[in-house]
Amino acid sequence: MKQNKPKVVGITGGIATGKSTVSKIxxxxxxxxxxxxxxxxxxxxxxKPAYRExxxxxxxxxxxxxxxxxxxxxxxxxxxxxxxxxxLNSITHPYIMKAIKESIDNKKEQKIxxxxxxxxxxxxxxxxxxxxxxxxxxxxxxxxxNQIDRLMKRDCIDRTEALNKISAQMPIEIKKKYASKVIDxxxxxxxxxxxxxxxxxxxxxxxxx
Length: 209
Description:
Elements: E1 7-13, H1 19-28, E2 33-35, H2 36-42, H3 49-58, H4 71-78, H5 82-105, E3 112-116, H6 124-129, E4 136-141, H7 144-155, H8 159-167, H9 172-175, E5 181-184, H10 189-208
Parallel strand pairs: 1-3, 1-4, 2-3, 4-5
Helix pairs in contact: 7-8
C-alpha cells in the first residue's frame, strides 16, 4: 500500500542526551532535518517582524554592536524573570511555529520528514494549535547520571550547575512515556548510528508495506 502523505517524525531529547548527534546522523544518511533551533534564530534576524517586536519590548540593550539580537544578553534578561520569559515566547513562538509548519508543508513529496525540536513534548499543545502533528516521536535517551556527566564535560561546569540545568527541564524518564521510539545513547557512536539506521529502515518499510 502506498502512502498518501509523508510520515512526520519528531526528534527530541533532554539537555546533553545527544539529540544533535542523532540529527547529524540522519542528515548524513541523506535525509533533511527541519531544525527548530535554526528556525528560532532565523525568525529574529535583523529587520524581521519578531526582531522589531523584541526591540520594541526589551529595548536596544538586547542588540550587539552590529545591530543583531544578542542571544546571550536576551537570555540574561529573561533569566529568573517569568514575565519577560513569557513575553519573549509570546513574540517568537508564533513565528517559529508558522515556519516549522511551512517547512513541513514544503516537503510533502518526501517519504519521511524529520523535525528536530528540543522541547517537543513540553510544547505539544502549542504545536497542535498550529496543526503540527507527528506520526512518531523519537526520544534520544541517556540516564540522568550520564546526562550530568556529559553536561559537566560539555559546558565545563560543576555537578550542581549541571543538576540545575537538567532540573529546569521535564525529566527524561517522563519524556520516555511520550516516545514512539527510544534511541538509547548510552553506548558509543557506532551503536547510536546503527539504531538510527534501523529505525529509519523500519519506518520506510512500514510506509511501503
